[in-house]
Specification:
Length: about 290
């Protein structure tokens, strides 16, 4: 004869699953674009947890798309190769030698690490760069930045075809120019362009900060695009947060329902943001 003690942990788990039902219904067949920043990738255990959450999203009917960065990994290899790299307004100045390293790291090492982690959790991760099937076509952002591109077109049909086969696209932010050039794209910018082209329900920017902070240093959980512009003009939003909030504003004005800047270091941050009232960062709406 088997007996079972109904302990509080099991009850709490059941209550959590029950309370998530309205959110599961809300996001059924939704498209969620997730920007995974290089600093947010963390340890192997953190990557495993992230991959498990992404596979769970796919299992409950969400169509996740991962766009990743890899700045720390690029910096590490550039240092080892003794290639100097400068930044202007948060964007890497990219000459030909730097571009070769960027593509090697992003399309190779980083992309395949994420794909492997997703597949290890039972998902169908597929690695891509913006050059595959002209997924992301670019124009040169600024000649002073070298091979840095701004997305001009996204092949969203290709991604929708992958959704139908239950693949989870993992995209390296490398783009193709009209004359065959290879461009480095800011990861946040690439994620925003992909989300806007797909008219995604949500864009999540996973980073290594808690969210957008006000002048008192307190994280603001909900903002409008107008709030972001005012806080930027006042200097409250500054530094590396500027390109993230700009991406969020451009995305929501491009048709994305909402964008959230999320602390990717928090365990299960994606699930907390999508499937709980509490959320896990700063949500920006139009």
């Amino acid at each position: 004869m088997k007996t079972r003690d109904m302990n509080r942990d099991w009850i709490a788990t059941a209550e959590t699953l029950s309370s998530a039902l309205p959110y599961l219904q809300r996001y059924d067949d939704a498209i969620v674009v997730i920007k995974l920043g290089g600093h947010a990738m963390g340890s192997d255990e953190g990557m495993e947890s992230f991959a498990r959450d992404v596979v769970l999203l796919r299992q409950v009917g969400v169509n996740p798309v991962i766009v990743h960065g890899g700045g720390p990994m690029i910096n590490s290899l550039l240092d080892r190769l003794q290639i100097k790299s400068d930044f202007v307004n948060g964007k890497r100045v990219t000459d030909k030698a730097t571009m070769e390293v960027v593509e090697m790291v992003l399309s190779g090492m980083v992309n395949k690490r994420i794909v492997q982690a997703i597949n290890a959790q039972g998902g169908r991760g597929i690695g891509l760069s913006g050059k595959d099937a002209n997924l992301i076509t670019c124009e040169m952002t600024d000649p002073a930045l070298g091979f840095v591109g701004s997305p001009s077109k996204v092949n969203d049909e290709m991604l929708r075809n992958l959704f139908e086969k239950e693949f989870i696209p993992v995209i390296a932010p490398i783009g193709a120019g009209l004359e065959g050039e290879t461009f480095n794209i800011n990861g946040d910018t690439a994620a925003g362009a992909v989300a806007a082209a797909l008219k995604a329900d949500r864009l999540l920017l996973l980073t290594d900060v808690a969210g957008v902070k006000n002048a008192q240093g307190v994280v603001v959980t909900e903002l409008t695009a107008a709030d972001v512009e005012a806080m930027t003009a006042e200097g409250v939003i500054a530094g590396g947060m500027i390109p993230k909030t700009e991406t969020a504003v451009n995305a929501v004005r491009g048709g994305v329902r909402a964008c959230t800047i999320v602390d990717g270091r928090v365990p299960n941050a994606v699930l907390l943001e999508l499937f709980t009232d509490h959320g896990a960062g700063s949500m920006i709406r139009g």
